[in-house]
Amino acid sequence: MTFNSVGIVGGGAWGTALAQTMRLAGRDTLIWAREPEVVAEINSGHCNTAFLPGIVLDPALRATASPADVAACNVVLMVAPAQHVRAVGAELAPHLAPGKPLVVCAKGLEQATGKLLGAVVAETLPQATLAVLSGPSFAADVVRGLPAALTLACADETLGARLIDALGYRQFRLYRSTDVIGVQLGGAVKNVLAIAAGIVEGKGLGASAHAALVARGFAELRRFAEALGARPETLMGLSGLGDLLLTCGSAQSRNMSLGRALGQGQALEAVLGSRRSVAEGVYTAAAVAKVAAEKGIDMPISAAVHAIVAGQATVDQAIDALLARPSRAEG
Hints:
Helix content is 50%, strand content 12%.
């Protein structure tokens, strides 16, 4: 099988950025988007003003409203929001050929079940061959062709190498891994921690508090991921530490900017209602808290974020509870 054509499931900012990148890598690229206006605008105006305003897209990039069209491509990238992967996968399933490579590019855990998105895909699209793409990458940077480096994980090393050859190019550098679990978990948990980092900034707690939050948050990510079978070296790489540093350190991060708004006293409903894009950390926080409680994993920062977004604690109450925790050995 050759990988000359790439189907993108999802016409949001990240899906569009990846589609533009695939064109720069020389691949025929098709986006499946739910919004008719997005499909029409990509095809006729070569832009996606709803999600990436001001960006001119490659005129050869095409969009469709048909899942069958995107399933016919040589490789499919699943870029639907994490909480919609199950429903979108069910729509795609009747059209996807056995063995077709499907690369999960969304980041998060399924809120209702606490499952990894790879597990959700395995249930809804059992005929697909799974890979995962994750790492430090803002859509606004990638769509402009600025340099980025990510990790592509696939249990089949030969397929993983072929996918990297097909999807990467000079400005979009891909590193190979077989740790599918670790690459997924880094991208999921960092969204929760980015909300916490944003709250620190919004409350004006200072750079020292921010650095402490990120370091202790990384310790939580490592404990959580290793308990679920991830390899430690994966968490130290692009999809773990790299993505955490990016997402917790820039206002471009949807999750950090949401946390900053919460720290400034805005209501969660008001912040979410003013946005079209999804801050996955809001939903993943509940899944992380659920899994951590079931497995006895100490995740105080993530638990605090869940308590805030679930309305179980105010920002000030959550901060006070964290600062009141007894001293312990670092680790």
